[in-house]
Amino acid sequence: MTVKTMAEYAAEDKSPEILFWVGCAGSFDDRAQKVTRAFAEILTAAGIEFAILGDEEACTGDPARRAGNEFLFQMVALQNIETLNMYGVKKMVTACPHCFNTIKNEYPALGGHYDIVHHTQLLQQLIDEGRIKMTEGGTFKGKRITYHDSCYLGRANGIYEAPRDVLRSLDGQLVEMKRSRQNGLCCGAGGAQMWKEDEPGDKRINMERTDEALSLNPDVIAVNCPFCLTMMNDGVTGREKQNEVMVYDLSELIVRNMRVS
Question: How far is Cα 242 from Cα 238, in angstroms, rounded to an integer?
Answer without folding.
Answer: 9
